[in-house]
Amino acid sequence: MSKNPELEAFFKSEMEGVRRLGNDRANIKRFNETTPGTEIRRRRAVSDDKVDQDHLTDSEHIELLGPADILEFRRDGVQIGVFRKLRLGKYDIEARLDLHKMSVDDSRREVFRFIRDCMQYGLRTVIILHGKGERNPEQRALLKSYLAKWLPEMEDVLAFHSAQRQHGGTGAVYVMLRKNDRERQLNKERHGGK
Questions:
Q1: Which of 117, 125, 51, 44 is nearest to 85 (CA)?
Q2: Domain 30-194 maps to which CATH number in 3.90.25.10, 3.40.50.720, 3.40.190.80, 3.30.1370.110?
Q3: Tens of pLDDT, residue by residue, the chain (194 residues)
Q4: 190: phi then psi, degrees, rounded to nearest 5
């Protein structure tokens, strides 16, 4: 490895006047003082957990549905043609949540988080696989029954309907979500709204 005298001379000229630091090192200490940002993050973490746990019905009496029962719901303002298209599975499914083998409590938390995440990313049509409950000795679909109660409780859910056979039939449900704030703003800009 040969040295380049021109490069070495250039380096020395650039380094002229620079002096070497002693063994002084920066004094880095980690302080456990609470900053305003730390306090905000703590409050959010505690409130998010509370919302996850308390938002959806958990122990209230619900009507138990059977394996073949169809789930359907449509908020006022959702056009019949849009609902028909959802029912027929004509919209692209943008995300899916599988609740098989989950407890009711775990399912409740997962459904809430799933819908919240879908809204954050601007997803509009998703599917939730809940099972039919056919293996249940009483032929009751517990998760399906709770899901039929939870979804209308979520204001971001515009409509839902049991899926077509190729997507799980009465063991799954299509869910249509509202546009998130970003999508609504883009829509207003696109169509000249204020």
A1: 125
A2: 3.30.1370.110
A3: 457 888 888 888 888 888 776 665 555 555 556 666 666 666 666 665 444 444 555 556 788 899 999 999 999 999 999 999 999 999 999 999 999 989 999 999 999 999 999 999 999 999 999 998 877 767 788 899 999 999 999 999 999 999 999 999 999 999 999 987 777 777 677 777 65
A4: -65, -35
